[in-house]
Amino acid sequence: MIQINQLSKVFRTEEVETKALNDVSLTIKEGEFVTVMGPSGSGKSTLLNIVGLLDSASSGSYQLLGKEMVGIKERGRAKIRKQQIGFVFQNFNLIDELSVYDNIELPMIYNGVASSERSKRVQAMAERLGISHRLKHYPQQLSGGQQQRVAVARALINEPKIILADEPTGNLDSKNGNEVMELLTDLHAGGATILMVTHSDYDASFSQKTILMKDGMVMSEKQQTKNIDIVVNS
Amino acid sequence: MIKNWIHIFYYNIKNNKLFMFLNLIGLSIGISGLIFAILYWNDEHAYDAWNTEKSKVFEVINDMGENGEWYTNPAPLGPHLLEESDLVASYCYLNNWYNGANIYYNGEKEYSEKILDAQSNFFEYFPFDFLQGDKASALEPNSIVLSQKLANRIFGDEDPMNKEITYSNRKMVVKGVYKLNEKSSYKPEAVINAIDERLKHNEDAWGNYNFGLLIKLKNPDSKEKVAKQMETIYYKNKLEPSARDLGITPQEYEAKYGGFLIKLQALKDIRLGTINSGVAEGQGNRQFLLIMMGVSILILILSIVNYINLATANAIKRAKEVGVRKIIGATKVDIIKQFLFETALMSAVAIVISLVIVELVLPVYNDFLNKDLVIQGGLIYTQLVCIFIVLIIMAGVFPALYVANFETLKVLRGNFGRSKGGIWLRNGMLVLQFAIAAFFIVGSYIVYQQVQFMSTKDLGFKGDQIIEIYLRQKNPEAVFQRYETVRNEVAKIEGVKEVSTGIFDLGGGARSSSSFEYKGNNIQGQNMAMDFGMLEMLKIPVIEGRNISTEFASDTISSMLVNEAALRVMDEKNPIGKSVTWNGEDLKIIGVVKDFNLFGLDQDIPPMVFFHVKTIDWMQYNLDKVFVKIDASKMEETIARIETFWNSKIDDEYAFNYDFVNKKYERTYMQYVNQKNLFSVLNIVVIIIALFGLFALASFSIERRMKEIAIRKTLGADTKHLLITLTKQYVVFCVIGFLIAIVPVYYLLSGWLENFVFRISISVLPFVIGFVALLVLTLIVVLGRAYRAVSLDILTYLKYE
User: Fold this and answer.
1) Cβ contacts (< 8 Å) between A89 and chain B: which residues?
2) How does DSSP classify residue B239?
């Protein structure tokens, strides 16, 4: 599903040239749940942004669903973003001026989904994530956990091929954090492809594969052996 | 403390250079507009303010119904009034126009254009300071009283008192010198007292409205009563005898010819009064003054709104500063003081800049108003202080309160940048700005249309290449003979195509007006006395019958023509050959003249009666110009030749003086052309200020929404979607603002158009143009700003907020 080859990203200021990504190669298969870990400045967020087409690479190749993504224009990127990718952020990134309903509906508007269809899908999604009773509220009126559920609902509403999560539990207490992780695990169990950046070993333990990054390079890649069910029950 | 404030102020200016600069310029332009208007206002209100008699002196005006207002009165009215009313202290007959003539002293001549003929108590009505002579007795027949300036021009260093001068072939002795007050409804350079003689000739002539009349009341409150008394005097002395002569009852007479309606206007109200007035200096343009005041206040509001919008938008950026100040102990009042202080600094700088602008533009403005305004005197400085205080209150208090009420904790927690506080107010003010801008665009387009209409309208006559030369009469007994000589000689000059005369001004009307009766209808006609060929020269067609011609001897004895307007009142289908009794003479109608605009376009076409000058003997006394049509290709040299001939053969006393008929007519609506030009300039100013406000507000608002934009982009919104999202609300505001402006602009401009009898009707076009212009400008500004925002790197806003 995702094929990254020798991908580099260079940030230039007047004096310094920083390699945020240095010849990174990586493959994510369909249905995989992959975690990226590493200290601050290791390039994990940059990687996620490039995969999410929010940022572009300096060199190398990035193929999504068999298509080359490096070098395509913003218009093309916007199209792929809205059709194939769902984002979940640490700080939720909901639009405060819009209600929960409107927030969840937004990606469908950009995708040109018919209005009646939109309403049906928002209702169904809210049901699935247990936020039906919150649809008329505004983000500021919700708890962090609820806000993140809304963000997840928004990320899933277009049935994207891949979900990108940038420290999704970073702003949540452990109870709410757990709930979000369970949600992602459920999604994974349902067949979703997930790429998640996190600082937390605990969160990482939910995934199948963990990539460890440092100084813009992939240090190691290990398969998870832990049984998820045990964690949930503990 | 103040030092600290100044540091912060300076820092903010440095970091918002462009906005601060534009804001300051906007405010300065707004203030200078108001200063201009105030200077004009002060100048107009200074008229007659010096005059200690201003509340007691009243101008007598006759309301003649559909024949307009007459500012002249018959000679017997004053004496009768004084005799019969114990409410009146005195009266003073005077000309309500100046004579321009040479004054001779020791063989030298000095031209004065403002010589006034008034009764001897004139200086009780206009108590100018006397430098020499006795105010009470200076004015008598055969004496002349001079203003200081004219006395200096005539006599230089010599003492003018009791010197003999010659004016209009009469010897006169200087009996006084006065210091003229510049702001006066009568501002003569010299005053003589020849009017008494003319009054005496007319002492029983109740029908000759020839003289301006001022009366002084013992108590100003009795003005209504006195007006009634005058109407009674007219009734007894004019109406009843006339009715008796006609053998009808006074009631029948009144029903047929109308009664008498007197208006008294106090001197203090004359300059800017709602009642028209006939004083020699004329009235101020009250309507235009109000327009100027209103418009300048609108512009100032516009710039203050900009200031408030920017200040509150900017305040969000400064929320952290305020939070920190509060935590270390500042009270609300301290914060308010600080922000008021900043507004005070800005206002002070803006006022200084605006004074510079005013100083620079004042000469142009003076040209435009035909005045000599200066920034001087205590009044304007007091007013500047008032403006300063009002500015601080209007522009300063709201932002200061807004900032002072920030919730400290919210601010420091850091998510205040997206607060919605004040957004309604800002949007409301934006709508107001749109409304003002729409008002100006639509309004000035309507003014433009009307002026365009006037300058292209077919007036019914052609004044091209026709000049009128002013001919001063010498011997009152042989006026027409002299004209005939001049005509015959001028006609011989190379380049001259036609020569004739008419005792009327195109744009000003005939020199006299008389009424006559036909089929029981009373027609108040303009007396269009003329020489042969006058109508032909002006290309005014005779649509029925024939014009006067040298071929018919009767055409200088008993022939007359009427225009269509007169014919309508006469109610006559076949006028040719009909007889009319006109002022006791039997005249026969030989033709009908097509209607043309004798007055300016603000007035209707009046009934007119045309005849040869010789037909009515006394007409020639008003003959004072010669109309000459000149070959277009030889215009300049021909005028030069006429001038040479004129100066050597016709008049060596006075300078050769001529005017183009076309240009003279254009001057009747010149003030509206000027208004149009002024509005065009103001339009640009208003649009610039409003657009800048929009730009700044859109910038702040979009900046506030950067994170939202970033999120939407992440969710896959493309540029088009984002631009629509960001622009939508401004288009809505623009539409609302425009809708708000429609009614006031329609109402006020309809009122303005009522100045004209010949006017356009307000069409949809100005509104369509105004709307499209406003919308396009809005879209340019907002889209430009939004596009820049959308093109920015979104990651910054996702991550670091």
Assistant:
1) 798
2) I
Q: Count Cβ atoms below 10 Å from residue A86 Cβ, excluding itself.
A: 28
Could you say which of B420, B716, B795 has the minimum Cβ distance to residue A81?
B716
pLDDT of residue B411: 59
Q: Which chain A residues touch B715 with a CB distance below 8 Å?
A: 81-82, 87, 106-107, 110, 154
pLDDT for residue B725 is more than 90: no
Chain A residues touching chain B at CB-CB below 8 Å: 45, 49, 52, 54-55, 74-75, 78-79, 81-83, 85, 87, 89, 91, 93-97, 106-107, 110-111, 154
Interface subset of B 549-578, CB within 8 angstroms of A: none
Q: How many helices (H) and strands (E) does chain A have?
A: 8, 10
Which own/partner contact pairs does B682-688 have at CB distance under 8 Å and 24+ positions apart?
B682/B33, B682/B295, B682/B299, B682/B440, B682/B444, B683/B440, B683/B441, B683/B444, B685/B29, B685/B33, B685/B299, B686/B298, B686/B299, B686/B302, B686/B436, B686/B437, B686/B440, B687/B437, B687/B440, B687/B441, B687/B777
Nearest CA-CA distance, residue A150 and chain B, Å: 14
Judge contact between B756 and B675, C-beta under 8 A: no
**Cα B725 vs. chain centroid, distance in angstroms?**
48
- Average pLDDT estimate for B25-32: 91
CB B484 within 8 A of CB B476: no
Here the ipTM equals: 0.78
A43: left (phi over 0), alpha (psi -120 to 50) or beta: left
Q: Decide: B35 and B355 in contact? Cβ < 8 Å.
A: yes
Q: In the predicted model, is pLDDT for residue B405 greater than 80?
A: no
Query: SS in 3 state form for B68-102?
Result: CEECCECCCHHHHHHHHCCCEEEEEEECCCCEEEE
Q: How far is B326 from chain A (nearest CA, A)?
A: 25
Spell out the residues 6+ positions from residue B293 whose beta carbon is closer than 8 angstroms to its own. B37, B41
Identify the pLDDT of residue A233.
Answer: 40
For chains A and B, count residue pairs whose Cβ atoms are closer than 8 Å: 56
Domains of chain A: residue spans and CATH: 2-233 (3.40.50.300)
Mean pLDDT of B136-148: 93
User: What pLDDT does residue B460 have?
Assistant: 94
The span from the CA of B545 to the CA of B531, in Å, is 18
How many degrees, rounded to 5, is the angle at CA A61 between CA A57 and CA A67?
110
Which of the four pLDDT bands, split at 50, 70 and 90, describes residue A231? very low
Residue B721 touches chain A, beta carbons under 8 Å = yes
